[in-house]
Amino acid sequence: MTNLLKDNIHCLTKNGDKYFKFDKCFHYVDFYKDYCIDSDGRREAYSLKSILDQFEVLDPKENVVLQINYELGFLFESLEELIDPNQRLFSIFYFSELEEFKMNESEEFSKNNFKYDLNREAYYSKFDQVQQNLLAGNCYQVNLTNLVTVDVDSHEHLKNQFLSLVDKHGHFFHYLLTDKYELLSNSPECLFEIENDRLITRPIKGTIESSKSLETLKSSEKDISELNIITDLLRNDLSRISENFSKVTKLRDYFEVPGLYQQYSQIEVKLPSKVTLYDILKAIYPGGSITGAPKRRVLEIIKNIEDSKRDFYTGSTVFLSSKFTRASINIRTAQIQDNTLKYGTGGGLTLLSDRELEYNEMTGKINSFFKSFC
């Protein structure tokens, strides 16, 4: 039975304008705070550094996918006390095959209804708690999120539409099928990409509905300030990876996803000849755009204010192969587990934030995903 389950595990992803399939999973390991369990049921202690040091990012030797939950970041920031010992923090999947894949495009679009409950008053209460921390000087930018349960007519129909509507797929589109859950990610956001000897990251800060003018986003003092804060945070994070200084190669640029305009920057750093996945994640995980600044303090504030674990949402999926090395930040991402579909949404807050506008931005991000595939 175990081999059959492993045979079914696979991952589809997009790199540039091509699709690839990680297939023939021959082993996987689930990692918790103090122990790991492999696909044969063996349980043992582990060293996070030893595990991640085995993956060299400039010359990967295997076809590997890591699905990382947000809470793994507590380990990198020495906040172990915030971790539930029974929560899975990350998984590593080993595949024997990686092949270019032809995605079948849908010619028909049959409607699949969706609904969710994002409680406005509960959000306002959490928004006010963030503002109190900002006013007290505990932080100067916080990413506040919600994980919501979404009802759809058919999970299978949603998945099929998600896979087949190629023109809607984002820069970090991927679909991961495991023996425990399915992950449907249409993320546009980059945790890192490796190009030759450079590591590149592109934080997104600033979102507006595309029914409004892009000029509104370009002139938003709040969004400009927010992007500048996170760009500076990541410039410092990237400089921790090597002795080379990082560079901001794009300060403000823009792109469009279904229903939204988004603003981002690009930062890069030249890597040393030997660098491992541990070196990178220790420096930059979790991503600054989905936490805030200063990062360690904000992780504590978020834990106190948000009323559920983020889990897969704002985590990352890392792809290591001879063809590409890259990692997403998992926004615009849904998880199907135990016949329940969950979706995360959120946004960055500063003292200039308006709670009604922020609430509307969150609903816009939910609609951006589900209206594309429902």
Give a written overview of the molecule:
- The protein is an alpha+beta fold.
- It has one domain: Anthranilate synthase (4-Layer Sandwich).
- It has ten helices and 20 strands.
- It has a 20-stranded antiparallel β-sheet that branches.
- The model has no long low-confidence stretch (mean pLDDT 94).
Task: Explain the layout of strands and helices.
Layout: H1 2-8, E1 10-15, E2 18-31, E3 36-38, E4 43-44, H2 48-53, E5 63-68, H3 73-76, E6 90-101, E7 114-116, H4 120-135, E8 141-152, H5 155-164, E9 172-177, E10 182-187, E11 190-195, E12 198-202, E13 204-209, H6 214-218, H7 221-239, E14 247-257, E15 260-270, H8 277-284, E16 292-293, H9 295-305, E17 316-320, E18 325-328, E19 333-337, E20 340-349, H10 355-373
Antiparallel strand pairs: 1-2, 1-9, 2-3, 2-6, 3-4, 5-6, 5-17, 7-8, 8-16, 8-20, 9-10, 10-19, 11-12, 11-18, 12-15, 13-15, 14-15, 17-18, 19-20
